[in-house]
Design a protein that fits this description.
Radius of gyration: 24 Å
Strand content: under 5%
Mean pLDDT: 88
Largest sheet: none
Distance between the termini: 51 Å
Order of helices and strands: HHHHHHH
Number of domains: 2
Shape: elongated
Low-confidence stretches: none
Helix content: over 70%
Number of strands: 0
Structural class: mainly alpha
Length: 196
């Protein structure tokens, strides 16, 4: 259902090969400066991935809260007033910005295939092990945090991808059944109490 482009594969394999190769050269073969250079780049990649991942994860919630607040302010105003027009323009701008954040291109890029996710897991485990052997547990922790944030973003992108195409997984179907059963149970409880 999900796919990963050849460009993404090539970039990931290239970067991972260089980083893991430099780590192996530094940790196992004690090549001068290989460990230091690879650790520097892993710090940069981990921190940037963590920061941008958290921004992408948090911004939609903040944006949605701001939109809801503006809509509440708009409810009590007459539609022709200047304040109402100003609030409507702000709402439209906020919704447009929110839509741009999770654009179709970004969703397609992040909704990675299962094969790519498996590759992602394996290469990150190799990097974690090499970093711990090299005596960099704090960097390994940052790398794990960056990896978990990327997995969270991939999950959101996959959900948006399915919603856009109208596809459902077994979990989605099970959630719908659970909501339906809870609704039926609640309706039965209301009916039981009303007849007594």
């Amino acid at each position: 259902m999900y796919s990963t482009s050849l460009k993404t594969w090539a970039r990931a394999v290239g970067i991972d090969s260089i980083l893991i190769g430099a780590l192996v050269a530094g940790v196992i073969f004690h090549t001068p400066y290989a460990l230091e250079v690879s650790v520097f780049f892993i710090w940069c990649i981990s921190i940037l991935g963590l920061v941008f991942g958290l921004i992408i994860a948090v911004l939609p919630g903040i944006s949605q809260a701001a939109i809801e607040s503006l809509k509440e302010q708009l409810e009590g105003l007459p539609p022709e007033s200047e304040k109402a027009k100003e609030l409507a323009a702000k709402i439209a701008k906020a919704e447009e910005s929110s839509a741009k954040l999770w654009s179709v291109k970004m969703v397609n890029r992040l909704a990675a295939s299962n094969t790519y996710l498996t590759y992602h897991w394996l290469t990150d485990i190799a990097v974690w092990v090499l970093l711990i052997i090299a005596g960099h547990p704090i960097l390994a922790t940052f790398k794990v945090a960056s990896f978990l944030v990327s997995c969270m973003l991939i999950g959101v992108a996959r959900r948006l991808y399915r919603e856009r195409l109208g596809l459902k997984t077994e979990d989605d179907i099970e959630n719908e059944f659970a909501q339906h059963r809870a609704h039926v149970r609640q309706m039965n409880n209301v009916d039981d109490t009303s007849t007594k």
